[in-house]
Amino acid sequence: MSTTINKADTKKIMNKLRFILFTWCTIYAAGTQAQSTQSAHLIYFQTPATDFMEAFPLGNGRLGAMVYGGVFKEGIGLNHNRLWRRKYTNITRPVSHYLDTIRAMAAMGKWQEAENKLRQKLQPFYKIGKDSLKQGGAVNPYQPAGDLILTHNYSGTAKNYSRMLNMQTGVATVSYTLQGARYTREHFFSEDPSVMVVHLYSNKKKKLNFSVGFQRGDSTIAMKPVNTSAGGSMMTGKGIDPECKQNIFTDQNTVSFEGQFIEGVVWGMKARLIQKGGKLSRSKDKLSINDADEAWILVSIATDSETATPFSRCNTDLQKAVKKLPLLKQEAVKKHSSYYNRVQLSLGKEKSPVMDAHQWLKQQRAKPDAALYEKLFNYGRYLLICSSRKGNLPANLQGIWNEDYKPAWDSDFHYDINQQMNYWMADVVGLPECGEPFFDFNTSILPKARANAKNIYGSRGVLFPIATDPYSAGSFFRGPWVAWTGGAAWVAQHYWDHWQYTNDTSFLKNRAYPFLKEVALFYEDFIYYDSLGRMTFFPSISPENGTIRPDSSQGTLCSTPTSDLALMSEVFTNLIAASSVLQKDARQRSAWKKMLTAIPPYPISAEGELLEFTPPFKTTSSTHRHLSHLHGIFPGEEIDVLSSNPQLVQAASKALQQRGLQATGWATIHRAAAWARLHDAEKALKCLDNFASGQITSNLMGLHDPWDGVSPAPRPFQIDCNLGVVRAITEMLVQSINGEIRLLPALPQSWSEGSIKNFRAKKGFVVSIEWEKGGVTKGTILPTASTNCVLRSSVPITVHCPGDKIFRPVTSLNGVVKFQATKGKQYHFERAKDGL
Questions:
Q1: How far apart are CA 299 and CA 321, in angstroms?
Q2: Within 10 Å of residue 224's Cβ, how many Cβ atoms?
Q3: How far is CA 712 from CA 50, 51, 221, 403, in A?
Q4: pTM of the model
Q5: pLDDT digits (tens, 9 = 90+) for 219-274
Q6: Residue 667 CA to chain centroid, in angstroms?
Q7: DSSP letter at 142?
C-alpha cells in the first residue's frame, strides 16, 4: 500500500518550515556554533559507533536515546525513565519480634548464628505475579524500550564522516559524503512536547531514500552473561527477550510499536514521518521515503504507568510536535542551554583541538591533562541535565540509558552511595531543578519507608532500603542488606544541603525539617545501650565490606560501625540547627542535643588510624571500594582539615591513604573528593588520573570496572562516576564548609591557571574566580541573601563593593577575609598588593 502526505495542514507546515526553519535556525545555529567552538563542549568521532560505549547519549529527563550514527543502517537505542519490569512485588510484614532474639545471640557472642537468623527471619516478603507471598524479594530491572531503525538505500563508500555531540546545545549531528552528496542527520530532544527529533537533509535535492521502523531484539545478536568485580551480574546483548510480546504496525505517516511484558507492563512508541518532496510509502512494519529533499522523524514513547492508553499520550505529543515543528529545535536548544550555560570552567588557556575521540582518549589515557577534566566536568553536567528533570524519576545507576534486559544491579536506585553521588553536584553547579526528582522520589517512598521501620525493627520514623525501583517504591528485598539502616540518614544530608545552598526557607520548613525529624525518630527507637552503657547500633553493616567478628566468624553483620556514628551525628547536628532556624520544637531540641553528645567517639587504632569497625571487630578488606567510615570527610564536613581535632584529621587521612587511590569507578571519584577536602591536591588529581586512564570509555561514560582501552565491550556503565567527578572537581576549586568559602583549596600544580564562573556556595553565594600561578588573581561574590561572608584564600585578598557611597575595602588577614554581604550587591575581590 502506498500513500503521500499532500494534505492541507502538511503543506502549511512545509511553508512555515521553508521560511522560518531555514532562516531563523540558520542564524541561531551560527550564533550557537560560535559559542560552542571550544572542544571542551564537543565529543567528535570520525566513525560510526559499534558499541553502546561509543554512542552519544541524548535525553530530556523523561526519554533517552543512544545515537550510533550508522551510514547504511542506524539503530537508535530508546529508553523511557518509567519503563521498569513489575515482576516482583516487595512487601514488608511484621517480623520485628525476631529482633530481640538476634540481639541476644550477638550479646552472647554467637555472631554467625545471629547473622543466619537475620537472613532467615528478619526479611521482607514478595510475590511474583499472582503468586502467594514468599519471604525474600528482588529488585525490578530497568528496561530498554527498543530501537528506532533507519535503513538508507545507498551504495558506495561514505567519505568525510563526522559524528559530533554538542553538549552545550544537546544536539548530536551525523554527516558524511556519499556519491557526491553531503548527508546530515541532526538528533535532539524536545521537553514539551516530549519527543525525539531526527532531522535529515542533504545539500542536493531528491537524495533522501530511507525506511523507518522499530525493533526490540535481534535473533542474530547473542546474549551473554557478564559478572562484575563487585559481584553484580548482568546480561548483555540485544537478543530476543522471551518475556516480551511486541506488535509493530503502520498507519498513514506513522509507525508504531506496542510492547508488553508477561506480567502486564505495556508501553507504546510512535514515529511520525514528515517530508519535503519525494514520496512516502508504507508496508506492514515500516515507512519508506523515496527522493525526498528533507525529512523529520518525530518519536514519542509512553508507558501504562503514565496513562491507561500509552498511544493516546504518544499521539498528543506528536500532534503538538507537528504544530511546533518549525520552532522545536530553537526551543529545545534554548531549554537545554539554559541549564548548561549556568556555570563555566576553564583550566588553562591551552585547549585541545577537536579530534577523533578514540585518538584523543588514547592520548589522555597515557597522560591525562586539564583539557580532559574540563570536558568531563561539562559531560557530567550534560548527563544530569539529560537524565533528571522536574516531574520525572531521578537518574538511576545508568541515568536514563540502558540497552540490557538485565542490566548490572538492575540499573536500580542504590542508596548506600550511588544515588546520593548522582546528586552531589546539583546545587553546586546551579542545577537545583535537576535535583528535584531525587527529592520527589524520596517523598514518594516515605509510606513504605515508615512500614519498613515498623515491620522490620519495630521503630517509628523511616528506613530506606539499600536499593529499590519505582514499583517496589522503597520496600526491601532479600539478603543481609536489611541491616543497612543508614540510607535515609545519608539522604537527609541532601535536604539540609539544598536549604543551605538555596536559602529556601519554605523547603526547609516543609520538606527538609520533617524529613530530618523522621530519620531522627528511627534512631531514637532503634539505638539501644549495652550492658556497659554504650550506645549500640545493631543489626548493622558497613557497606559493603565484610568484618571479622569477636567469635572469629566472618560476614557483613556487625555492631556500631563508624559509618553509623558519622551519619547519626550528622542527622542530629543538622536537625538541631534546623530547629533553631525555624524556632520550632525547643523541648525536643534539648533531647536531641543529649542524644548527639551520647554518640560514641570515632574508634582510632593504636597506630592512629580511623577504624571502619569498632573493636574488637576488624575489617576483611582495608582497601575496600566504599569509604563509609570516612563520611565525615566527604560528603560530610564533620572532619575538617582546618578546624577539627588534628588527631582526628590525621587518623582520617591515614584511613584514606590505606584505602588506596583507585577502586571501582565511582569509588575512585569519591577518593578524589575526599583528598580535596583534606587539601591534598596532588592525591586528588592522581585519583582523577586513575579514573581517566582506565575507567572511562570512548564516549566518556564512566565504568564500574577498570578497562584497558582495548578489550571489546567494557561493562558496566555507571553514571555516578560521571556525575560524581563534577563534584570532585568543584571541591578542588571551591569548598563551602563550616561557614567558609575556601578558594582553590586543592589546586594541582598542573591547573596553575584558570577560571570558574557562577559556582554556588552555601548561604546562597554565587562565586566566580580567576587564578594564575596557583593563586587567586580576582573574582566576584554575589549574595542572594544578606548575610556574613567568610572567604579563605592561600594568598591575601582585598574585597570591595563598587558603587558604595563610601568605599570600604576589606583586606584579608592570613588569607581570611570577613564582611557583611548585602543581597543583590556584587562584591569584587582581588589579590592584595604588597604591603596590604
A1: 10
A2: 11
A3: 10, 9, 15, 16
A4: 0.94
A5: 888 888 888 877 778 888 888 999 999 999 999 999 999 999 999 999 999 999 99
A6: 14
A7: B
